[in-house]
Each structure stands twice: as C-alpha cells, then as structure tokens.
Fold this sequence. Notes:
This protein is an alpha/beta fold. The protein has 2 domains: 2-79 and 112-396, 3-Layer(aba) Sandwich (Rossmann fold), CATH 3.40.50.300; 399-443 and 482-687, no CATH class. The chain is built from 21 helices and 12 strands.
Amino acid sequence: MAEDGDGNHRLIELEDGRSGGFSSEDSSVIHSPWPGNLRARGPARDKCYSWQSDDVPDLPQDEEREWTQGRTRFSSFGGSDLELRWEALSMCSWQVSRKSQEAVQILTNVSGAARAGKITCILGPSGSGKTTLLNVLAGRQSGGHRHRIRITGQVWVSGSRVDPRAVRSRMAYVMQKDEMFATSTPTEALSFSASLRLSGPRDRKELISELLGSLGLRSCSHTYIGNAVLNGLSGGQRKRTAIGVELITRPDIVCLDEPTSGLDSFAAYQVMSVLKDLGKAGCTIICTLHQPSSEIFALVDQVICLCDGRCLWAGDREQMVGYFSTVGYPCPVGFNPADFVIFLMQTEPKSKTDELTQIWTRKHAEAAAFCSESSLTSPYDEHELCRTPKVRSGFSTAQKGFGQQLRQLAKRELRAVVRDRTTLAVRVTLSVVLTFLFGLVFQGVGRTILETKDQNIFDQMWTGLTYAEVTALRKRKLEWHFNALVQVALVAMFSACQPVILTFPLERPVFLREYSSGTYSVLPYYLSKMVVEVPLVFVQSLMTLGLCYVVMSLNGNFWALLWTIVLLSVCSVSVALAISCAVRQPRETGAVGPLVFVPQMLFSGVFIPVSHMPVYLRWMQYFSFLQYAIKVLGIVEFRHVPHKELVLDAQDILEDSLWVYVGLLVLMVLIFSLTGIQMLRNKATHLF
Ligand SMILES: Nc1ncnc2c1ncn2[C@@H]1O[C@H](COP(=O)(O)OP(=O)(O)OP(=O)(O)O)[C@@H](O)[C@H]1O
Ligand SMILES: [Mg+2]
C-alpha cells in the first residue's frame, strides 16, 4: 500500500503480481507501524467453508488485479460533506420501583461536533455513556413516556436543526456485535443488503466489487462469515464485512459502536485504517472507542471525552494532551494519551472529574459566545430532542416492495437451511429414528379393521374366550390403534417445533439490526420463515407418515392423513415462532417451550377426557391445536373401521364435525402467526 499526494491509501500492484490490498494473506503490505516480524500472521485457521454462488458478481483474478491497480478506496463515497453538531444533549431514564420513581441521568449537557472527512471518537471508560450518545446521534435511541426516557438538546446537520431519526437514511450504524448470517459469504451479505436497499441494479455489482476491494475482503469474498460454532471469517474480516453491509447505501455519516472491540491490535488497526480512508473519501465518521492503542489513536482526528455521561473535553486529538496539562494533568512522556485520559477519568475522585467537567462547560460556553453562532442556545435547553414520536425516518419510503423483500429473504433462509447440513441431518435423523421406533412398537396395530364378526367367532374358537371378552379385547386393540395415531401426531408436533425454537431466537439480533436499518419489514421476514419451513415440514411429515403408514398398517386415506399432519406441523411451527418472538433472551425458549407444548398434550383429551377435568380448566382445551389434529386423524383413520364408535365416542370425537376441526386448526395457525408477527414488531419498535 502506498499513499498518494492527498494522503489517501492507494492499492498498488506488487512485483509478483499479487494485489496490494490488505487481505488476510497480504497483510504484510499494509502501511503499518509494526516492524515486519511482528506482522506475521498467526496459525492458519484449520477449516473454512466457502461457497461459490451464481447470483453474486464473479470476481476472476484478472478483474481483481485490474480493480486494484492505482485505485483509491471508497472512490464513489462522500461528496455531501455533512457536519453533525449537537448541543446540550441530556438523557434521563426513570426506573419505577414499587413505591417511588427514580430518575437516572445517563447523559448530561453533552456538546460536540463531527466533521466531514474526519474520524471523531467518543472516548471513555465502560458505562460512561458512549453507546448511548452514539445511539442518540444516530437516531436509534427511543425516547418518550412509553420508554420512560427523556432526551433533550439539539442536533444540527450542516447547519439545519434536525430530529436525528429523520436523517437515518443518510447514516450508517454499525453495531458493536457483528450480527450476520453465519452461512452467508461477504459477497452474499453485501449483495443481499444491496438488493433490498439500493434503488436500481445499475451500479450494484460495481459497488459490491468496490466495497470488497476497499474493505480488503476480496480474498475471502466466498468464505462463510461463520460464528462460534461454524468456522469462517476472522474477527477483523467479519467486522469489515459488517461495516460493508451498512456502507451499501453510500451513507454520508457513519456511526460505529466499538469497531475495534474483541479484535487483536493488528485487526483493529486494519479496521481503523478502513475508516480513515472512508473519512478521507468525504464521509463523517463517529465511533466509540474503549481502549485504543497508540497506533489506532493516531488515526483519530477529533476526540470527545465522556465521563459519567458528561463531557470532559472535546476537540482536535493533537490538542488533548495540551489541554489536560493546562488543567493540571500532564500526560507523562511516552504514555498513550488515550490510556492516560481514560485512567484519569476512572481513578480521580468524583469531585475532581466534576470540576473538570465544569471547567470544560465554561470554556465551551465562552467559545460559543465568542463565535456568537445563532444556532447555539443555552446549554440547558429543555426542548425534547425527538418531538415526532412516530418518525420512521426517510428509509421507509426507500424500502423495496413486499414481493422483492420476501423473495430475497426466502432465498437467504433456504440457503442457510441447505448449508447448515448438521442441523438438517439431525432433523431428518431424529424424525426417522423416532418414527421407526414408534412404528416398531405399534407394528401392525391397524389390522383391527379385519376383525369383522366372523373374525370374532374365529377368535372365540381359537382363544377359548367368551364373546364379551373378545369384544373387550377388540376395544383395547382399537385404543392401541388410536394411541398409535396420537404418537404420530406427537412426533410431527415436536419435530416441527424443535428446530425453530432452537435456531430462530439466535437469529433475532440479525433481524433487529436489519429491521432497524430499514432493510425490510416484519411481515415478509416472518413469511420468509414460513415459506421455507412449510416445504421442510411437508417432507418431514411425508417421511413420518410414510413409515408409520406401512409399519403400523394404518387404514385411512394416506393423503388426508398427510395433510392433517402437515397442518399440525405448520401450527406447531407458528406456535414455536410466536414463542421465539415473545421471549427476551434465546435461552428463555427452553423454559417457555414446554410451558406451551406440554399443556397441548394434557388438554388433548387423550389421557383424560376434558369432561372429567375441573370446570375452571376446561376452557384451555380450546387452545390445544393438538386435540383438533388428533380428532381429524381419528375420523380419517377410523372412518371405515367396524365398531369405530367404541373409540370415537370415548374420545369425544364427532364425525360430522370434521371440517369444523380442520377450520379450527387453520384458525390456530392464523392466530399464532399474527401473535408472532405482532410480538416481533413490538420487539423491533421497542428497541429503536
Ligand atoms: N435505557 C436505559 N435505561 C437505564 N439506564 C441506561 C439505559 N441505557 C443506558 N443506561 C445506563 O447508562 C450508562 C451508560 O451506558 P452505555 O451503554 O452508554 O455505556 P458505554 O460507555 O457504552 O459502556 P461500554 O464501554 O461498556 O459499552 C450505563 O450505566 C447503563 O446502565
Ligand atoms: Mg458501549
């Protein structure tokens, strides 16, 4: 890498023909403060999975070489030169306890600015309010009575006062955690973001190619992103991919929460140099940093020091050491200034930091008065920052149509299912093994249909039993036959809900990130899950019933039984989705799941008729979708069985109500789906 006359990092062709971008393999060519021997890579990752997809731009070697020659990173970015300025930002939250209402001041009278072409860093110890300030500036902090949060102050973008939520379409926000689909590749992640967030396909491929090159991701563009259990990109590559996904809209302001956290110092440096180049292209960069190394801190242009939600100092990085010297805290020679200030904020008593805050507030007020800027107001402006509670920002209008969203989401979902071969194999094996086990236990149980009157006489002669005893035996056999059906229904219900309960809550952070950036809305997301799950449960039901039908010698119409099992499985999936949408933490599904599914069995009327249950509990039977499915299965299976009334009457099954039961099952699917959609919407809107 070299620097051109303007100080931009340029990618150059190396002598041996390799590109000079900072891919993981070519990290030694990066302009870095480390000596050569420290730049050696760690041990190679043992196994990475890649995927070549045909729906994304192909990047042949020649093209890559051509792309890198003499290019400037992010050349198509910037140009708007937006300056973000904020005055007297305060945020207060009410914690309501049993007797009183306690107010917690999270931000107090924070002022500052972020300029185009510069990296502005919010520096402070843990809990100082860095993320909160960034969220407020990025329009991602809910306020108002409903959230028990009051945000006051003013924000300007290039001189115009704005509600930050209204300019979200021009901002990118990169969260601290990289929430992405583990089974997608960087190219696919960028392509997905582009297809839902860019208006036309005109320069989509070009932009993806530019981003992959600028972010140093070309060498791993077809490697899985990965997660804790699936090997994939390195931490630095993953972070750069997360940045790329948000940069797809060519934003003017880029906000990043702790972009270097969790990375080793070199990977962190790579990320920050990407941001430096992005800044040089003309974007306004604001990031929070918790513990920057000297090399990383040297890349920062402006600093805002936060301590307990108050501003201790804000200004050009070069002036920071000088300022703290003037107020009595000289930074020892050779110390990292960022470490020095963070240490100071954490070790000095509160009275001292309060004093420093007051000194800075006074100096800032004097400077503002000196500039006599009309837009600057009293530092204690009590105007609510977010005055339009329903603002869903500019991006809502830019969203793609429902069909396009559903298509893209379903495509990604299907890809994830196909590529996650372990989960798929576990799913198939479990249902085959369980079905086979049940099949063997209930082997040939359906042959009761042959027990006509003649058979009874034969049985009597053969076994020496009386007619009454043979009838009792037949009744018991009919019960076993019915129990076999119940087991088929139980296997279908549990095998359909289990994968959803285990995987969906883990994906929710990805949904929340994408929803908050306006990539798609709740309904297509939910339906995409269904669109992929329904064919899967169909295949699963076909396997389950196919095996049982043969081994248990069932008698009912195969297709009628199959569609009932499919409907039951879809209902089970919709309940599992509703639970996954309702819980706060993924691990809660483990507790809530049995709470919903076990009563399904209890109130199915199989173990004890509902008429024998306490009156005040009977209403719960109406929520047991399992009982409706079992009733339909019972009617279909026993329709032509002699003495069917022995079992149907015992189970309170009304043969004439077949379509009522089917209708109730469909109604249950609708109710649980709508509940899930509403829960998901609540979660998403409550967050931002
Ligand atoms: N909605 C809220 N309600 C109540 N308290 C909150 C809320 N949001 C943040 N806080 C509190 O405000 C303080 C600052 O939180 P914040 O996440 O902004 O800190 P931070 O500087 O980003 O910390 P870290 O470096 O650990 O990420 C914390 O004490 C946190 O508990
Ligand atoms: Mg934080």
